TrEMBL record:
Coiled coil: none annotated. PANTHER family: METAL TRANSPORT PROTEIN HI_1621-RELATED (PTHR34229:SF1). Signal peptide: none annotated. The chain crosses the membrane at residues 51-68, 80-105, 125-144, 156-176, 188-216, 258-277, 323-344. This is Energy-coupling factor ABC transporter permease.
Length: 359
């Protein structure tokens, strides 16, 4: 659903740019809290030493899976948006930053998604998908049994809803600042219809990924916080929370193993599996072509990039060119994402005074 330059006029693009900048500013503050959250006992329940590297990995994984277009309907494909997945794994504020890092890397290095439309894409693909999906996710967890399976089920539904929500958001933005004279009713019908189907693929990928992580390390899943009821002990006639168990060395090793496994998986998906992805246009491209929205599409400012269109310039072998581009993309994204989140974590640590920690 990457919007190219020329779909939306300059004033509307500027307004969405302001909205995106505001969302990123709020998310930076919120992510600092998410990266430094502690339990009531003062112990790291979901701290930055766990979250920061996982957040960088989530960004890289989203980049990799977005290269895997899957067939949806005749002549149309879809790909992961990632807002729901990131929100559930690392928290909603951090998720907005994760998806935004991916969109920035794609726009600057791979000429995917217009640079003047970056505000549109961040607003639509990072902000709307995250806010909608996480609201649905938390609402479902409030009524479902407090079990791990409930997290997976809620993940599926939240991801499913987030994609047509993004389609609706794009339609509204187009209604305000579209550069072609196309009936909004036609655009809305086509966009929502195809993206409901794409949402099923998003839901499957999100549920499988969340389920896989929660099966081995539920403590690393932001959306699963508080899933277990804390053990309570009666002391002198009063019920008090039992101390949280210390994380064993094996679990810490498992965290590193999970990170390495996730990175290797991302590299394999982007560097090898992506060659077999569907070559059909995605939902937005198909609707734009069929309805004439793309009549005023402009050439991407980074069209001359050595990695434009997910291929390495001057490498003639298509498989090798695409694979190298995917591996480079995963590497750059994980470094950029991890740098951002480690910096936020360090800033959070510097802001915590002895009074805050109870020292």
């Amino acid at each position: 659903m990457h919007v190219p330059d020329g779909f939306i006029d300059a004033p509307t693009s500027a307004i969405t740019g302001v909205v995106a900048a505001g969302a990123l500013a709020v998310s930076l503050r919120g992510a600092r809290r998410e990266l430094g959250a502690t339990s009531r006992a003062g112990e790291a329940e979901y701290g930055g030493e766990r979250t920061a590297p996982l957040a960088g990995l989530v960004a890289a994984f989203i980049f990799a899976v977005q290269m895997l277009n899957f067939p949806v309907a005749a002549g149309t494909s879809g790909h992961l948006l990632g807002g729901a997945l990131a929100a559930i794994l690392v928290g909603p504020y951090t998720a907005v930053l994760c998806v935004s890092v991916v969109l920035l890397m794609q726009g600057v290095l791979f000429a995917d998604g217009g640079l003047t439309a970056l505000g549109v894409n961040i607003t639509d693909m990072a902000l709307v998908t995250t806010v909608v999906s996480y609201a649905v996710f938390r609402g479902l967890l409030a009524v479902l049994p407090r079990k791990r399976r409930s997290v997976t089920v809620a993940s599926f539904v939240a991801a499913l809803v987030s994609v047509p929500a993004a389609a609706v958001a794009f339609t509204l933005i187009y209604a305000v600042g579209g550069t072609t004279d196309v009936s909004i009713g036609k655009v809305a019908t086509a966009m929502i219809g195809v993206h409901v189907l794409i949402g099923i693929g998003e839901a499957v990928i999100t549920a499988l990924t969340v389920g896989a992580v929660i099966a081995v390390r539920p403590d690393l899943v932001y959306g699963a916080r508080g899933l277990r009821q804390r053990l309570r002990l009666r002391v002198n006639g009063t019920l008090v929370d039992a101390p949280a168990p210390t994380t064993p060395v094996a679990a810490r090793t498992s965290r590193r193993t999970l990170w390495v496994t996730g990175l290797v998986t991302s590299l394999v998906l982007a560097g090898f599996v992506s060659f077999y992805a569907s070559s059909n246009p995605d939902g937005l491209e198909k609707v734009a072509h069929d309805k004439g929205i793309d009549e005023k599409t402009e050439e991407h400012a980074a069209a001359g990039s050595p990695l434009a269109d997910y291929g390495v310039k001057d490498v003639s072998d298509a498989r090798l060119s695409g694979g190298l581009a995917g591996v480079i993309g995963v590497g750059v994204t994980v470094v950029a994402g991890s740098t951002v989140f480690w910096a936020l974590r360090r800033r959070r640590s510097a802001d915590v005074s002895p009074v805050d920690t109870g020292v």
